[in-house]
Amino acid sequence: MVVSDFFPMWDTLTKEEQDQLTANTLLKKKEAGRLIHDSGEDCEGLILVISGQLRAYVTSPEGKEVTLYRVLPGEICLFSASCILKNVKMDITVRAEKETVYYLIPAHHYKNLTEHSAKIARYTNEILSTRFSDVMWLLEQIMWQSMDKRIAAFLLEEIKLEGTNELTITHEKIASHLGTAREVVTRILKYFQEEGLVELNRGMVTVKSPSALPRP
């Protein structure tokens, strides 16, 4: 993928705007598990994922994590450049879930572009709106959905992301994504197993009947 692939309005940008985007873009790579942006760090920049998968999450004062969203190939992580967003402050951590290759547009360069290009600024607002919708959906799940349905939804999302019903994931990792205790996840997964919905092995959850999992 090239930089232009991430901007659907690329052909309508001026030659100067296109040149500024490409000239100020860095190619980066992070191994699975590596931190890309920490909530306590300065604004890094706009991340454009070429391959791999990122996890954006928040951490409570007690150390409990909740996944806000994933960033997949062809998608943009905007909150790693949150300093370019006026009146928006979100302490989000971004970590590579898989080995990830990405472009990084440093925050000061991208901020300059948004201030001088109405089209880039409008597209940035569209990305921001989409991510806030993701966060609001998550908030609704936390407030109104039972944990068994949230775990079921998480398993279905993992099946879609990994392309297989055999998920290599621990109960601890699921708990970390959902912001709950490992014991809660274990109890619900064991119930799913008793109902014939999943099969549990060490470090693995096999979803035997995705369509039968609890739905919202």
Describe the structure.
This protein is an alpha+beta fold. The protein has 6 helices and 9 strands. A hairpin with a 2-residue loop joins strand 8 and strand 9 (204-207). The chain has helices at residues 15-23, 107-116, 118-144, 147-162, 171-178, 182-194, and strands at residues 26-30, 35-37, 45-59, 65-71, 76-77, 93-106, 166-167, 198-201, 204-207. Helix 2 (107-116) crosses helix 3 and helix 5 crosses helix 6 (182-194). The protein is elongated and about 60 Å long. The strands form 2 sheets. Strands 1, 2, 3, 4, 5 and 6 form a 6-stranded antiparallel beta sheet that branches. The protein is 38% helix and 26% strand. It has 2 domains: 3-143, Sandwich (Jelly Rolls), CATH 2.60.120.10; 145-212, Arc Repressor Mutant, subunit A (Orthogonal Bundle), CATH 1.10.10.10. The longest helix is centred in the middle third of the chain and has 27 residues, at 118-144.
Supply the number of helical segments: 6
Uncertain segments of ≥5 residues (pLDDT<50)? Answer: none
CATH topology type of the largest domain: Jelly Rolls
| SSE arrangement, N to C | HEEEEEEHHHEHHEE
SS content category: alpha+beta
Count up the domains. Answer: 2
Helical coverage, percent range? 25-40%
| Beta fraction | 25-35%
Biggest sheet descriptor: 6 strands, antiparallel
- Report, as a whole number of angstroms, the end-to-end distance: 36 Å
Provide the CATH architecture of the largest domain: Sandwich
Outline type: elongated
CATH homologous superfamily grouping of the largest domain: Jelly Rolls
Mean pLDDT: 89
Radius of gyration based on Cα positions: 19 Å
Count of beta strands: 9
The CATH top-level class label of the largest domain:
Mainly Beta
